[in-house]
Amino acid sequence: MALPDNKKFFENLSGGGKAIAVLTSGGDAQGMNAAVRAVVRMGIYVGAKVYFIHEGYQGMVDGGENIKEASWESVSSMLQVGGTVIGSARCKEFRARDGRLKAAHNLVQHGITNLCVIGGDGSLTGANLFREEWSGLLAELVEQGLIDEEAAQRYSALHIVGMVGSIDNDFCGTDMTIGTDSALHRIIEVVDAIMTTAQSHQRTFVLEVMGRHCGYLALVSALACGADWVLIPEMPPEDGWEDKMCQKLSANRAGMKRLNIIIIAEGAIDFKNKPITAGYVKDLVVRCLGFDTRVTILGHVQRGGTPSAFDRILASRMGVEAVMALLETTANTPAYVVSLCGNQSVRLPLMECVQMTQEVQKAMDEKRFEEAVKLRGRSFENNLKTYKLLAHRKPESDLPVSNFNVAVLNVGAPAAGMNAAVRSAVRVGISEGHKMFAVNDGFEGFYKGQIREIKWADVGGWTGQGGSLLGTKRTLPAKHVEKIAEQMRIHNINALLVIGGFEAYLGLLELLAARGIYDEFCVPMVMVPATVSNNVPGSEFSIGADTALNAITDTCDRIKQSASGTKRRVFIIETMGGYCGYLASVGGLAAGADAAYIYEEPFDIRDLQANVEHLTDKMKTGIQRGLVLRNENSNDNYTTDFIYQLYSEEGKGVFDCRKNVLGHMQQGGAPSPFDRNFGTKIAAKAMQWITKKLTETYRQGRVFANTEDSCCLLGMRRRALVFQPVVQLKDETDFVHRIPKEQWWLKLRPLMKILAKYKTTFDVSDSGQLEHVVRIRPKDLDASTV
Known about the structure:
Pathway: Carbohydrate degradation; glycolysis; D-glyceraldehyde 3-phosphate and glycerone phosphate from D-glucose: step 3/4. The chain contains 24 helices and 27 strands. It is an alpha/beta fold. Strands 12, 13, 14, 15, 16, 17, 24 and 25 form an eight-stranded mixed sheet that branches. α8 (about 215-225) runs parallel beside α14 (about 380-390). The longest helix has 25 residues, at about 675-695. The chain starts with 5 loop residues before the first helix and ends in a 31-residue tail after the last helix.
């Protein structure tokens, strides 16, 4: 469905209001600027006037120069900047009615009746109170003679839409708040650096991270780095925890581990509500174990730095969605908050979310901690369960004995996060009583017999390592099925977990086809998608794609910065992805690209010419830098060199051109927090499925699984992780170009074009719908993967 014309949009605006104001309030968070940029540009795109309110509610109360009309150019070069460039301040005056009266007067003077508030629950609660009082405030302004009756009628309704900007991820109703992923990046960067020095000196490090009332950052960073112990407000340790922790640290050292990492949320408490500090834990370890122990308090470094690719995309999507929501509100519409549920934008009643958030704190105050964990949401609960499963090894005597052998292998090109997935699979498998086997070098190593048993300690420290420690090859199994079947027979392999990209998917289809000849393949088989290209059918995300996006975004930032202070310049950047344009398109959105050329959206010389003319016009308005991305296989004839030469020739006198082929740097580096966490959780879920299938298919002393649903791909579909028989995915696959026939991210391309000032249509059929907050989501709704 195309975007309705501006006139129709404004007819939807209650009271004839045609102005939108955006403000950031409370603590700052990386990604706020991306949200502000999206609100301004989407607002201007649909014909509204958009205003900045500087310094949050304080600026709204003070008025004057704090309320300024925004232009398209005023949000240029803002995307990659951390914090909030329009400022944020806590305002006591706004908490009093007199302050809100001043704020209302200042808004009416500018004709503003649509507010987009980016902040935490306190900021959003204040906005909702302001909205509820609006008519009374206007009546009071009329009484005082500050506005006339006509103005009161014209601006009779105030519309509010909120976006949650908070690094703590402590707001109920959304899987991720703006800034959380970037804060995790800062934490993991520090942890990775600390681990190298800790290993050198055999030290224990106690790290304190932010989270006064919410342990999300501590929990997920512990999961992402494989910490030995984590302390969070929602899960106070039981009496005697000190002895248990010291036993765990001592056991890990005895197992040849040279370091220990303990992560504490700043609001960590024990069951008696007594704070647990980093200093207390350090003294405890030194006193009981004598380990050389250091404390690192990360503090505000977690709020700083450039926003991650995830936060830029999240904030851009939410900003556009917020404008759409404002334009569709009526006088009876409640204040919304724009939220993320899985991979889908939703609109939730603001006060329902606030009340749920307050319920969490109330449950914690009343020591109903299990309920508090559930109220945090399915994602938080599953993160906690997964951490417990992987971090705390049960004694051998307590483990179930299944007598099943499960093999794990990586197939295709390496992807950051593969090792985290293998570690998770191995440890969950051992916890469930299986004997785990590692296959080196994919299917090639399989038929050559490169198979060995892998133990719990063998995968220690794997989470943060890039590439594939098992080794991976693109070799497909079809030509070697007889030898692979022989190896499965020799090692008595009862189930397969394949972690990889499109080759893994093809390999599973070939093994499925071989079941008719070899009974050895009549075992449960499951694939977990892992490829930077994100081109596997049946899943909207693949392990490794987020790390590649961050590599592209960081490089584009540096490349654009290299041109600062020089004459106007356009950069042509080539990305990987085969025929899949995911990296070019979503990377373009995160980096603020002017165009992204991909195979899925055919283009010709007229499109290239139009893009050059568009950039030329933008440069003449004062924009200094342009960015164009091209997927490596987007077109056989319009190569990166061709596009570079075309732009260079046609831009003469206006801008010059540079090109850069990013290449394999997109596959390298340490995995991002998203990929570590996604790999960990999806592999754990896959292993639990294998255990279930092994139990179901074990008959008369052997495993025999030959149904379609015993050979699956585990992928993320909108809000859920779903097991799908690979044979059913064949109809969804373009095998020639190795891409799915339908790809969700194509709906983000118009968003990139709108934010780059192109006139285009925008599909609103997938925009967020009003939903209501539910206490506990359906069983498989573990949608957030960070």
